[in-house]
Amino acid sequence: MGSDNSPALSLGEPLQVCDKQRKRAxxxxxxxxxxTSAVLKQLTLPMLWAILALFSADLIELYFASRLGVxxxxxxxxxxxxxxxxxxxxxxxxxxxxxRLTQAKEVxxxxxxxxxxxxxxxxxxxxxxWLGLQPLLTLLGFAEFAAREQVWPTLERYMQYRLGAVxxxxxxxxxxxxxxxxxxxRGAAQLxxxxxxxxxxxxxxxxxxxxxxxxxxxxxxxxxxxxxxAAVSASLYALYLxxxxxxxxxxxxxLSQRSxxxxxxxxxxxxxxxxxxxxxxxxxxxxxxxxxxxxSDAVAAFGVVMRIEPLALLxxxxxxxxxxxxxxxxxxxxKSLRVRRGIKQAIAACLVWQSVxxxxxxWGADMLGVGFCKQSFxxxxxxxxxxxxxxxxxxxxxxxxxxxxxxxxxxxxLALNVTLVRLFVLSLPCAYLGAQLNGFxxxxxxxxxxxxxxxxxxxxxxxxxxxxxxxxxxx
Length: 475
Description:
Blueprint: H1 2-33, H2 36-68, H3 70-78, H4 80-103, H5 107-131, H6 133-139, H7 148-164, H8 166-181, H9 185-206, H10 209-214, H11 219-245, H12 257-277, H13 279-292, H14 296-312, H15 314-332, H16 336-372, H17 376-408, H18 412-464
Helix pairs in contact: 2-3, 2-9, 2-14, 2-15, 2-16, 3-7, 3-14, 4-5, 4-8, 4-12, 4-13, 5-7, 5-8, 5-12, 7-11, 8-9, 8-11, 9-11, 13-18, 14-17, 15-16, 15-17, 16-17, 17-18
Organism: Pseudoalteromonas rubra
Pfam families: MatE
Protein name: MATE family efflux transporter
């Protein structure tokens, strides 16, 4: 009986691999031939729930911190640029690994090397940030925070847990990128929802009266523990999806020539991709320094605004992950009219979305301000930002889509220039001038103005080049 069963056992795995390859080929053909609206909807909706869950978890974490007191809210707000840097590295790694895997012939070998590369990058980055954490926070203005001596011990332990979870979080985001590249949007969405759901549930459980009395942990430490447990659990689920659902073996010979070559190729692509991703957290860090010059209460308010902004820009952010898949593959297939149709539909959806969001945040601004902090300056500053900034998010959404589509068709230099202009030529100088003229209110008005200006500039540019068939436009 052993000899009868052995051929079936040896052929089972290749058959499963071929079946996965056929499914991936079908997904690619569907992206090229399916209804534009149907394809965009199918690519976007799963990611909508995933990104919503991810950023909701971040916002809820900040809400729990605000329940501890304005000092804890301010302290955590100072760490947001550091967390944004970690997120940028995670996204960059996901892009690099997904790009290499979709181009590779031997997917299994590269997948294992990519995960090892991810672990090495994550561990190195976590160690570097931990060693320089206090100087980094001091650079951001933490030294001027009156309650720094009071909250630093608990903030330090919170960051210990956050940095300890970096490797596991990177694995989650890398597998998320790989699943998206393979067209498994549902699996990718389930992964992020699982991670975010675990973080929310564990955070809520650790803030119950029973946990408060049973566990000798401060409030911020509880949030760090919740993030750590969620990241570890989600990373195990990510490896399960990669190995079982996608049938990708994770065997590797580290000292082989192919492994060394794979490491070199990953590193060569990693440097420019992550450098591009780091522009936003760098700008956020400089912006935090400008805000910190207005006092610690301004930092607390701005921290809330930074967490609400991704949720307000939810649809554009999701489209920047799904639209490039549609645009890139159709552009490569010389279907430029289909590309333009997809971009038009995406922009129209974003305009409707941002109009609704602006109205919701305008009418609920006072509730948000008081809900996060009872302190008058903080709550009033949050309310002001929620009345002004969301109106400019429609312009910002257009910029985000433009940049992502330029990257999708290989015009990364143009995407980089637009990003540099938005962040370092308009937003930061305007914010600095606004702070000098009218404090925190000036910063808010300046950021809104910068969004409008860069949006108008891109619209003017697109209208001027719409007759050139080889140039991607948003017209």
